[in-house]
Amino acid sequence: MKELIAKDLLKIKAVFLSPDEPFTWASGIKSPIYCDNRLTLTAPEVRTDVEKSLAEVVKTHYPEAEVLMGTSTAGIAHAAITAHLLDMPMGYVRSGAKDHGRQNQIEGKLQKGDKVVVIEDLISTGGSVIEVVEALRAAGAEVLGIASIFTYGMQKGLDRLSAANVKNISLTDFDTIVEVAANENYIKAEDKERLIKFRNNPSDESWIKA
Length: 210
Prior knowledge:
Blueprint lengths: L1 H10 L3 E3 L5 E2 L5 E2 L1 E3 L8 H18 L5 E5 L4 H11 L3 E4 L12 E2 L7 E9 L3 H12 L3 E10 L3 H9 L4 E6 H10 L8 H9 L10
Parallel strand pairs: 5-6, 5-8, 8-9, 9-10
Antiparallel strand pairs: 1-4, 2-3, 6-7
Helix pairs in contact: 1-6, 2-3, 6-7
């Protein structure tokens, strides 16, 4: 599954590797990878692979799940399609409560004790998805874990998820993307070490000149 999804994301440039001409994140960090999983929604074959794989993750790793909750906004469509495949209810969690109407942060029916799986498109440092988990827990839900499309596997993110006692299962990850990209000639084989060096410490830009 990891290799299939990695090939899919690379093919449609939802994940794009450019070690020689790095991108700049909003934080100012130079990155050799650009990720936009929203592009999976406009590629039907890839979208099918992603949603069927997310459904399989939920069935295999979270068999007790009763509700799927997408992260706003990128996880909403994936949660909706996956829930449809599984014939399950779904909703989504805003980054903050609305300032009008019922001032909901959680949209969709959720009852105390409901067993929830969070659907996320991308995990880097883990901060935003943990906020979603905490909002669901505060509402009385039992969060079984996260099903995500892609994770960087950065230590900061792994540590945050562990500290929050949150399980995450990703369809693919940074290391698999790098391996497949080298095998499929998206990058040079000698770039693999540079990319892993970035993943190990994004703040250390020595990989750029490696």
